[in-house]
Amino acid sequence: MFLLISVCVCSLLLRGDAQDQAVMWRGNDRTGRCQYTFTVPSPMESSCAQMTGPEMDSLKARLNMLEVTMSRLTATYAGSAQTAGDRGQSEFQEALNRVMGERNMLQRERERLEQELESLRRRMDDMRREIEFLRSRQCHPQSPIAPPSSSMQGSGLMRTAGSSAWQYRPPGFQELKATVTEVPAPRSDDSTGCGELISVGEPVTHRKADNIEGKYGVWMQDPEPVSPYGSNMIWRIDTIGSDVRKLFGYEDMEQLSKGFPSKVLLLPEQVESTGATVYRGSLYYQRRRSRTLIRYDLASESIAARRDLPHAGFHGQFPYSWGGYTDIDLAVDENGLWAIYSTSKAKGAIVISKLDPHSLEVKKSWETNIRKSSVANSFMICGRLYTVASYTAPDTLINYMYDTATSQGKALRIPFKNLYRYNSMIDYNRAQRKLFAWDNYHMVSYDLRLGRQHSM
């Protein structure tokens, strides 16, 4: 390399016309290597000619095309970005307007439904007041009938006293008169003490629930307890919540009043509403969101039987008037285990079914002529179904009775009080011959008076 540089230098020095003007530069390039640079003026040209010709024109044309292409690309990109942004904003605004319109429509529909519901409630209250007013009115006394002669008695013709009009009555009719004898609810062990319900006492409060889970609930007592639990054991379920499975047990009424449970069981299946009952050492209840009945053995703490109640409505199809998914209500009385419900075939009328306490199989059913949604609650005493008119009115009525022994029903007017004005559970407690109720967080009981009819 050094030899090549020396030769070049010598050749330049030999040229006399350029010897005095040659310049050599020595320095490092960008990479740090040593670089020699020579500058020699042209001996023939006083100035460098400008680049012209086809090559220069071609280069300029290519540069112009490149500038035009870049300008078009830039304009296209900016236009497409703006168009896409405008389109997206327009679509978003359109979707937002559509959602707001649907929201406003749903809000108007909700307000309309609320107005209709309020109107229906007012109409129902007016109808209840009208019914109670009509029932409270006494019928006008009829004219007494004069005793018929022996010759006319067989023909069925009768004449009213003070009138010449003759009335026809079917021959052979014999009127049966009945007297009602009151008997106290507690009776000796050798008699069931069954009879029609005569009156219900004032409510007695035993305990108030601790939290919102206890606004609705059910509490009960086994009339035929099985070891290890005694006859004084009280059971309770709070039925507000998405996972109702806790069963609380109290040794007696005093422990219930103090709020000290002696047993807490976690049921394997969730409970639906306030229709549970306890009988012969088992808890009977409806599984949540189904028509399945479950018998849970309290001693072994396991499910002993399960069975669907045929065709029964569930989860809001045929509840009591207060709602609460009270489609299936289980009850126990002197005759055994019952289910109170309705079906599509019955068109909402109350159906009563006698159940086998071991297998939960339906043994016999009765269809009444009173709609389940028109009453607030019901209970069984001595094979008779009784219904309560209102769950909120402080002074309401037990307004209907259906006797499964005769398959006949009739209207009643037995006063009943809702002390706390939201009664979600009413059951007959055969163990104490009382009514147990759950009234707006409060566990209350009612004394009963029963009567028996004697033909004369």
Structure characterization notes:
This protein is α+β, with helices and mostly antiparallel strands and 456 residues long. It is built from five helices and 26 strands. A hairpin with a 4-residue loop joins strand 14 and strand 15. It is elongated and about 150 Å long.
Note the gap between the termini.
Answer: 150 Å
What assembly state would you assign to the polypeptide chains in this entry?
single chain
Q: Could you say which overall geometry the principal axes of the C-alpha atoms support? A: elongated
- Helix coverage percent: 10-25%
Give unreliable regions as ranges.
142-191
β-strand percent reads: 25-35%
Count of DSSP strands: 26
Rg, please? 49 Å
Could you give a short description of this structure?
The protein has 456 residues and is an alpha+beta fold. The chain contains five helices and 26 strands.
SSE topology:
Blueprint: H1 2-14, H2 16-19, E1 23-28, E2 34-39, H3 54-136, H4 150-153, E3 157-159, E4 166-168, E5 178-184, E6 196-200, E7 204-208, E8 217-221, E9 234-238, E10 246-250, H5 253-258, E11 263-266, E12 277-279, E13 282-286, E14 292-297, E15 302-308, E16 329-333, E17 336-341, E18 349-355, E19 362-371, E20 377-381, E21 384-388, E22 395-403, E23 408-417, E24 423-429, E25 434-439, E26 442-455
Antiparallel strand pairs: 1-2, 3-4, 5-26, 6-26, 7-26, 8-9, 9-10, 10-11, 12-13, 13-14, 14-15, 16-17, 17-18, 18-19, 20-21, 21-22, 22-23, 24-25, 25-26
